[in-house]
Hints:
The protein is mainly α. It has one domain: Orthogonal Bundle (Transferase(Phosphotransferase), domain 1). The protein contains six helices and two strands; from the N terminus they run ββαααααα. It has a two-stranded antiparallel ribbon. A hairpin with a 3-residue loop joins strand 1 and strand 2. The protein starts with 5 loop residues before the first strand and ends with a helix. The model has no long low-confidence stretch (mean pLDDT about 85).
Amino acid sequence: MKAKDLIKAPDGYEATGLTGTRRYMAPEVIRCAPYGFSADVYGFGILFWQMISLKTPFEKYDTNKLYDHVVVAGKRPEAVHGLPSMLHSMMEDAWSVETSKRPTFKQICQYLQAEIADTNSVNPSALMNRSLISLYHHEKEN
């Protein structure tokens, strides 16, 4: 992002819209509105959900349904069972409709580092249970 392309501070740059895969694309990118680094945070939040849930986000949505439900109505993926509340909040903040409410990648790294530190104090069977819960919910829905 170049300073000369900044249209709306702090993170609204003149940039090419509709770039990337729509299911991970921030609403402002789909609308071809000014966007910035927070659009990448949105995409990270959706991808993070996919890695945790073991599902494809908005899998049954065509282009029109994705626009109507995600861009216009603000629909986001469902809650992930067994995800620590701090990480769940980080993920939901990342895909906030309001770009100013999305965390920075520096903040995301802090959330993840805090979770790793917390996980290091958890016994291995608790981690295995967390993985099994996620796997169980994935298999139950398929």
